[in-house]
Amino acid sequence: MPQKKTALVISAHAADFVWRCGGAIALHADKGYEVTVVCLSFGERGESAKLWKEPGMTLDKVKSARRLEAEKAAKALGVHNLVSFDLGDYPLRLTDDDKYRLVDVIREVQPSFMLSHSQYDPYNTDHMYATQIALETRMIAQAWGHKPGQKVLGAPQLYLFEPHQTEQMGWKPDVFLDISPVWEKKRAAIECMEGQEHLWDYYTRVAENRANHYMRNSGGQSGGRAAKYAEGFQSIFPRTVDEL
Protein backbone atom coordinates (compact mmCIF):
# COMPACT_ATOMS: atom_id res chain seq x y z
CA MET A 1 0.00 0.00 0.00
CA PRO A 2 1.26 3.53 -0.70
CA GLN A 3 2.62 5.35 2.32
CA LYS A 4 0.23 7.86 3.88
CA LYS A 5 1.17 11.49 3.22
CA THR A 6 1.14 13.64 6.34
CA ALA A 7 2.15 17.07 7.61
CA LEU A 8 2.33 18.69 11.03
CA VAL A 9 1.83 22.32 12.08
CA ILE A 10 2.98 23.50 15.51
CA SER A 11 1.12 26.72 16.27
CA ALA A 12 1.78 28.80 19.38
CA HIS A 13 -1.76 30.18 19.51
CA ALA A 14 -5.13 29.12 18.12
CA ALA A 15 -5.15 31.56 15.18
CA ASP A 16 -1.52 31.41 14.06
CA PHE A 17 -1.96 28.43 11.75
CA VAL A 18 -4.76 30.25 9.93
CA TRP A 19 -2.97 33.51 9.07
CA ARG A 20 0.43 32.04 8.38
CA CYS A 21 -0.02 28.68 6.66
CA GLY A 22 -3.75 28.20 6.12
CA GLY A 23 -3.18 28.05 2.38
CA ALA A 24 -0.50 25.37 2.69
CA ILE A 25 -2.81 23.34 4.92
CA ALA A 26 -5.76 23.54 2.52
CA LEU A 27 -3.63 22.91 -0.57
CA HIS A 28 -1.99 19.80 0.86
CA ALA A 29 -5.29 18.54 2.28
CA ASP A 30 -6.66 18.74 -1.28
CA LYS A 31 -3.65 16.71 -2.44
CA GLY A 32 -4.49 13.93 0.00
CA TYR A 33 -2.25 14.86 2.93
CA GLU A 34 -3.51 14.29 6.44
CA VAL A 35 -2.55 17.58 8.10
CA THR A 36 -2.38 17.64 11.90
CA VAL A 37 -2.36 21.00 13.67
CA VAL A 38 -1.13 21.29 17.27
CA CYS A 39 -2.21 24.51 19.01
CA LEU A 40 -0.07 24.90 22.09
CA SER A 41 -2.43 27.55 23.50
CA PHE A 42 -5.65 29.34 22.60
CA GLY A 43 -4.01 32.78 22.74
CA GLU A 44 -6.55 33.62 25.40
CA ARG A 45 -4.49 36.14 27.36
CA GLY A 46 -2.48 38.00 24.78
CA GLU A 47 -4.24 37.60 21.43
CA SER A 48 -7.89 38.13 22.28
CA ALA A 49 -8.15 41.87 22.97
CA LYS A 50 -11.51 42.22 21.18
CA LEU A 51 -13.06 39.58 23.42
CA TRP A 52 -11.63 41.05 26.61
CA LYS A 53 -13.28 44.37 25.84
CA GLU A 54 -16.72 42.76 26.19
CA PRO A 55 -18.43 43.27 29.59
CA GLY A 56 -18.28 40.34 31.99
CA MET A 57 -15.64 38.46 30.02
CA THR A 58 -13.73 35.69 31.81
CA LEU A 59 -10.70 33.59 30.96
CA ASP A 60 -12.81 30.47 30.47
CA LYS A 61 -15.20 32.32 28.13
CA VAL A 62 -12.31 33.61 26.04
CA LYS A 63 -10.74 30.15 25.80
CA SER A 64 -14.05 28.63 24.76
CA ALA A 65 -14.54 31.27 22.08
CA ARG A 66 -11.02 30.82 20.70
CA ARG A 67 -11.34 27.04 20.74
CA LEU A 68 -14.55 27.25 18.72
CA GLU A 69 -12.94 29.66 16.24
CA ALA A 70 -9.97 27.32 15.77
CA GLU A 71 -12.24 24.31 15.26
CA LYS A 72 -14.30 26.14 12.62
CA ALA A 73 -11.17 27.35 10.84
CA ALA A 74 -9.61 23.89 10.90
CA LYS A 75 -12.75 22.44 9.33
CA ALA A 76 -12.72 25.11 6.61
CA LEU A 77 -9.10 24.25 5.76
CA GLY A 78 -9.57 20.47 5.77
CA VAL A 79 -7.38 19.81 8.82
CA HIS A 80 -7.27 16.09 9.58
CA ASN A 81 -6.74 16.48 13.32
CA LEU A 82 -6.67 19.58 15.52
CA VAL A 83 -4.89 18.94 18.82
CA SER A 84 -5.26 21.59 21.53
CA PHE A 85 -2.65 21.41 24.30
CA ASP A 86 -4.19 24.31 26.27
CA LEU A 87 -0.90 25.34 27.92
CA GLY A 88 -1.64 29.04 28.36
CA ASP A 89 0.04 32.01 26.69
CA TYR A 90 1.90 35.20 27.50
CA PRO A 91 4.06 33.45 28.42
CA LEU A 92 3.80 30.05 26.75
CA ARG A 93 5.79 27.43 28.67
CA LEU A 94 6.15 23.65 28.30
CA THR A 95 7.23 21.15 30.94
CA ASP A 96 9.24 18.07 29.95
CA ASP A 97 6.01 16.05 30.10
CA ASP A 98 4.38 18.53 27.69
CA LYS A 99 7.34 18.10 25.33
CA TYR A 100 7.12 14.31 25.49
CA ARG A 101 3.42 14.56 24.71
CA LEU A 102 4.30 16.54 21.60
CA VAL A 103 6.98 14.00 20.69
CA ASP A 104 4.30 11.31 20.85
CA VAL A 105 2.18 13.32 18.40
CA ILE A 106 5.13 13.79 16.04
CA ARG A 107 5.94 10.09 16.04
CA GLU A 108 2.32 9.16 15.54
CA VAL A 109 1.89 11.56 12.61
CA GLN A 110 5.30 10.82 11.02
CA PRO A 111 5.07 14.09 9.06
CA SER A 112 6.53 14.50 5.60
CA PHE A 113 7.18 18.11 6.62
CA MET A 114 6.57 20.38 9.59
CA LEU A 115 5.60 24.06 9.90
CA SER A 116 6.12 26.53 12.72
CA HIS A 117 7.08 30.14 13.49
CA SER A 118 10.12 32.32 12.78
CA GLN A 119 13.12 31.69 15.02
CA TYR A 120 13.15 35.26 16.31
CA ASP A 121 10.19 37.44 17.29
CA PRO A 122 10.80 40.27 19.77
CA TYR A 123 7.13 41.29 19.59
CA ASN A 124 5.81 37.90 20.62
CA THR A 125 8.26 35.57 22.32
CA ASP A 126 5.63 32.81 22.43
CA HIS A 127 6.16 32.44 18.68
CA MET A 128 9.90 31.88 18.73
CA TYR A 129 9.54 29.68 21.81
CA ALA A 130 7.14 27.45 19.86
CA THR A 131 9.76 26.98 17.14
CA GLN A 132 12.42 26.22 19.73
CA ILE A 133 10.04 23.55 21.03
CA ALA A 134 9.40 22.28 17.49
CA LEU A 135 13.13 21.83 16.92
CA GLU A 136 13.69 20.21 20.31
CA THR A 137 10.80 17.75 20.00
CA ARG A 138 11.75 16.93 16.40
CA MET A 139 15.22 16.02 17.70
CA ILE A 140 13.80 13.85 20.50
CA ALA A 141 11.43 12.13 18.08
CA GLN A 142 14.49 11.10 16.02
CA ALA A 143 16.27 9.55 19.03
CA TRP A 144 16.29 5.75 19.03
CA GLY A 145 16.77 5.73 22.80
CA HIS A 146 13.55 7.67 23.48
CA LYS A 147 10.77 5.14 24.14
CA PRO A 148 12.51 2.25 22.38
CA GLY A 149 10.07 0.31 20.27
CA GLN A 150 8.23 3.35 18.98
CA LYS A 151 8.75 4.22 15.33
CA VAL A 152 11.39 6.95 15.22
CA LEU A 153 11.03 10.07 13.10
CA GLY A 154 12.90 10.49 9.85
CA ALA A 155 14.13 13.93 8.78
CA PRO A 156 11.13 16.08 7.85
CA GLN A 157 11.85 19.63 6.72
CA LEU A 158 10.82 22.34 9.16
CA TYR A 159 9.39 25.32 7.29
CA LEU A 160 9.07 28.61 9.13
CA PHE A 161 5.93 30.49 8.15
CA GLU A 162 5.75 34.25 7.78
CA PRO A 163 5.79 36.41 10.94
CA HIS A 164 3.85 39.64 11.30
CA GLN A 165 6.76 42.06 10.78
CA THR A 166 9.26 40.19 8.65
CA GLU A 167 11.95 42.88 8.65
CA GLN A 168 12.22 42.71 12.45
CA MET A 169 12.34 38.92 12.65
CA GLY A 170 15.29 38.04 10.42
CA TRP A 171 12.90 35.83 8.44
CA LYS A 172 14.02 35.23 4.86
CA PRO A 173 11.72 33.12 2.65
CA ASP A 174 13.30 30.64 0.26
CA VAL A 175 10.06 28.90 -0.76
CA PHE A 176 6.91 30.44 -2.24
CA LEU A 177 3.73 28.37 -2.51
CA ASP A 178 0.87 29.24 -4.88
CA ILE A 179 -2.31 28.98 -2.81
CA SER A 180 -4.64 30.54 -5.40
CA PRO A 181 -6.66 27.32 -5.90
CA VAL A 182 -7.55 27.21 -2.19
CA TRP A 183 -7.69 30.91 -1.39
CA GLU A 184 -11.42 30.90 -0.71
CA LYS A 185 -10.88 28.20 1.93
CA LYS A 186 -8.16 30.25 3.61
CA ARG A 187 -10.27 33.40 3.55
CA ALA A 188 -13.19 31.47 5.05
CA ALA A 189 -10.88 30.23 7.81
CA ILE A 190 -9.57 33.76 8.38
CA GLU A 191 -13.12 34.99 8.87
CA CYS A 192 -13.65 32.33 11.54
CA MET A 193 -11.16 34.20 13.74
CA GLU A 194 -13.64 36.80 14.95
CA GLY A 195 -11.50 37.71 17.95
CA GLN A 196 -8.87 39.20 15.61
CA GLU A 197 -10.95 40.75 12.85
CA HIS A 198 -8.39 43.55 12.46
CA LEU A 199 -6.04 41.04 10.79
CA TRP A 200 -8.38 39.72 8.10
CA ASP A 201 -7.50 42.20 5.38
CA TYR A 202 -3.88 42.46 6.47
CA TYR A 203 -3.22 38.79 5.75
CA THR A 204 -5.16 39.01 2.51
CA ARG A 205 -2.72 41.71 1.39
CA VAL A 206 0.23 39.57 2.51
CA ALA A 207 -1.01 36.71 0.31
CA GLU A 208 -1.39 39.07 -2.66
CA ASN A 209 2.11 40.45 -2.17
CA ARG A 210 3.62 36.97 -1.92
CA ALA A 211 1.84 36.04 -5.17
CA ASN A 212 3.83 38.80 -6.86
CA HIS A 213 7.04 37.28 -5.46
CA TYR A 214 5.93 33.83 -6.60
CA MET A 215 5.46 35.07 -10.17
CA ARG A 216 8.75 36.96 -10.14
CA ASN A 217 10.71 33.95 -8.93
CA SER A 218 8.99 31.49 -11.25
CA GLY A 219 10.16 33.33 -14.35
CA GLY A 220 8.95 36.89 -14.13
CA GLN A 221 7.91 38.67 -17.31
CA SER A 222 9.72 36.10 -19.44
CA GLY A 223 7.20 33.40 -18.57
CA GLY A 224 6.52 33.20 -14.85
CA ARG A 225 3.51 31.32 -13.58
CA ALA A 226 0.54 33.48 -12.73
CA ALA A 227 -0.61 33.48 -9.10
CA LYS A 228 -3.14 35.59 -7.25
CA TYR A 229 -2.32 34.43 -3.71
CA ALA A 230 0.75 32.77 -2.22
CA GLU A 231 2.52 32.04 1.05
CA GLY A 232 6.23 32.26 1.82
CA PHE A 233 8.31 29.92 3.97
CA GLN A 234 11.88 29.66 5.20
CA SER A 235 13.40 26.18 5.34
CA ILE A 236 15.69 25.25 8.23
CA PHE A 237 17.50 22.19 6.92
CA PRO A 238 19.35 21.55 3.66
CA ARG A 239 17.32 19.77 1.03
CA THR A 240 18.65 16.74 -0.84
CA VAL A 241 17.91 16.65 -4.57
CA ASP A 242 18.78 14.57 -7.61
CA GLU A 243 18.65 17.53 -9.99
CA LEU A 244 18.21 21.31 -9.81
Task: Write up this protein.
With 244 residues, the chain is α/β, with parallel strands linked by helices. Helix content is 41%, strand content 14%. The protein is built from eight helices and seven strands. Strands 3-2-1-4-5-7-6 form a seven-stranded mixed sheet, sandwiched between helices. Helix 1 (16-30) links the parallel strand 1 (6-11) and strand 2. Helix 1 (16-30) runs parallel beside helix 3 (59-77). The model has no long low-confidence stretch (mean pLDDT 95).
Provide the fold topology.
Elements: E1 6-11, H1 16-30, E2 34-39, H2 49-52, H3 59-77, E3 81-84, H4 96-109, E4 113-116, H5 125-141, E5 157-161, H6 166-169, E6 175-178, H7 183-190, H8 200-217, E7 230-235
Parallel strand pairs: 1-2, 1-4, 2-3, 4-5
Antiparallel strand pairs: 5-7, 6-7
Helix pairs in contact: 1-3, 1-7, 3-7, 4-5
Provide a brief overview of the structure:
The protein has 244 residues and is α/β, with parallel strands linked by helices. It is built from eight helices and seven strands; from the N terminus they run βαβααβαβαβαβααβ. The mean pLDDT is 95.
Features:
8 helices; seven-stranded mixed sheet; alpha/beta; 244 residues; 7 strands; globular
Report the strand count.
Answer: 7
Which class of secondary structure composition applies to the elements?
alpha/beta
Order of helices and strands: EHEHHEHEHEHEHHE
SS summary, helix count: 8
Radius of gyration: 18 Å
Helical content class:
40-55%
Q: How can the largest sheet be summarized? A: 7 strands, mixed
Low-confidence stretches: none
What value does the average pLDDT take? Answer: 95
Q: Quaternary status of these chains? A: single chain
Strand content: 5-15%
Distance between the termini: 30 Å
- How would the global form be characterised? globular
Strands of the largest sheet, in order across it? Answer: 3-2-1-4-5-7-6
